[in-house]
Structures are given as structure tokens and as C-alpha cells.
Specification:
Shape: globular
Helix content: 55-70%
Strand content: under 5%
Length: about 180
């Protein structure tokens, strides 16, 4: 596989340079995956707009989806990043491992969400009716469903970009589930 470089600020368009500057101010660094989007003059801005759009899901709920989807898609970059973000949102290490499996025994509503996110991803949108019914029975709405599907798409884009480019992970790297006790 050819090696994909992580572009530096001076190697990207002016628009992307401004985004790099904003990311640097907000996060303290430009994550390698975001920098990789900047190979395109438009993809980084488009992705960040989509990723930061309003949603009916809370920050914690978004991390449930991000972890379940990234595990199905076996994206070590996104799993590593969202493990760190999940911890910032109050999840424990044990809860994060469980969310990666697509479950949340510690919270019935999040369990329905994790199962749905995993099921949508595994089945490429052909969602199991029982999983969908459990999601609605947990208190979620049709609007929440659309937001979950949008987030599955959002995360899948990043998963695919990393799996194709294999840029270095610049977060503490997580272990595959096979080597961790769940």
C-alpha cells in the first residue's frame, strides 16, 4: 500500500490553512485524520460542517454511535480518538469497551442506541425490525433515528478515509477487542 502523507499547513489550500489554524486554537493540534481530509480543497470544510451540525443526540449519545460504528468498521484511528472523547464525556474504560461491542448494560436507553448503531452499520442500513422497535421503546423518536443514521454515515466516512490512507494515529492507540476483556 502506498504511504499517504499527513499534509502540513503550508501544503494545503488557503481555506484549509484557516481551518488548521482554527483547529489548532480549539484542540491544540490538527488531528492527522483532519489534516488528511485537507488533501482535498473542500472535503475538510464539508466534513467539519456535517460533523458539527445540529443534532437531537447529546454528546454522550454521539460517542455511543461513534464507538459502535468505528468498531464494526475496525477503524483504529476513530476508535482511539473516540475512546479519548468518550472519557471526556464521562464514560469509563469498561463502558467504552462495552459500547464498542454495541451494548450498554449500564444504561437501557444507551443500550438501545448502541445496538441500533451497530446493527445499521453491520447490515448497511437494512436495520433489524426488533432492534429498531427496541430503539423506539427506549424513548427515541423518528427524528432521533434519522440523526443516528446521519451520524453512522458521518463516522463511516472517517473510518473509510483512515482505513484507506492509514495515516498515523495521534491519540493513545486502543487495543483490538480480541485482546481485551469485555
Amino acid at each position: 500500500m502506498s504511504t499517504f502523507n499527513v499534509p502540513k499547513r503550508e501544503e494545503v489550500s488557503e481555506n484549509n490553512q484557516a481551518i488548521f489554524d482554527n483547529l489548532e486554537k480549539a484542540l491544540g493540534f490538527v488531528p492527522n485524520l483532519f489534516a488528511t481530509y485537507a488533501h482535498s480543497d473542500t472535503a475538510l470544510e464539508n466534513y467539519l460542517t456535517f460533523s458539527n451540525a445540529k443534532t437531537s443526540l447529546s454528546a454522550k449519545e454521539k460517542e455511543v454511535v461513534n464507538l459502535a460504528v468505528s468498531e464494526v468498521n475496525q477503524c483504529v484511528y476513530c476508535l482511539s480518538a473516540h475512546t479519548a472523547i468518550g472519557k471526556m464525556n464521562g464514560f469509563t474504560d469498561e463502558q467504552i469497551l462495552e459500547l464498542r461491542v454495541g451494548k450498554a448494560s449500564f444504561d437501557n436507553k444507551l443500550d438501545a442506541l448502541a445496538q441500533l448503531a451497530k446493527n445499521i452499520t453491520v447490515n448497511r442500513g437494512a436495520t433489524d425490525s426488533t432492534v429498531l422497535e427496541n430503539f423506539f421503546n427506549a424513548g427515541y423518536s423518528k427524528g432521533n433515528l434519522i440523526d443516528v443514521i446521519s451520524l453512522v454515515g458521518d463516522k463511516t466516512i472517517s473510518n473509510y478515509i483512515h482505513k484507506t490512507t492509514q495515516v498515523p494515529v495521534d491519540f493513545p492507540v486502543v487495543e483490538p477487542l480480541e485482546t481485551t476483556a469485555v
